[in-house]
Amino acid sequence: MARLLTEAEIQDSTSVLSGWTVVGAQLQITRTFNDFVQAIEFVNKLVAPAESAGHHPDIEISYNKVKISLTSHDAGGLTQSDFDLAKVISQIS
To answer: Degrees (nearest 5) of the Cα angle 30, 58, 82?
Structure first.
């Protein structure tokens, strides 16, 4: 099982991620697109990196908005895996 990050580590890791916030034990971002089709195309681009990392985000879709939440359920909070995947997701357009 992955090691939970300390509050200081979480703050340091969050500070280098544009648009991501910590909400409770989750790392979250909401991306807005022109329409539903673009939102779904973005979600489809998340599949390969999530599968490759063996780490899967919680995803909410509301028309043109996609909310992504990351947490390490097995560890009970935020781990380095969450921040690693957030960095990859941040590069996807």
So the answer is: 85
Quote the number of domains for the chain: 1
| Cα within 13 Å of Cα(92), Cβ side | 24
pLDDT digits (tens, 9 = 90+) for 34-44: 999 999 999 99
CATH number at residue 37: 3.30.1360.20
Query: Tens digits of per-residue pLDDT, 23-71?
Result: 999 999 999 999 999 999 999 999 999 999 999 999 999 999 999 999 9
Bridge partners (DSSP) of residue 21 are 28
Say if residues 33 and 64 touch (Cβ distance below 8 Å): yes
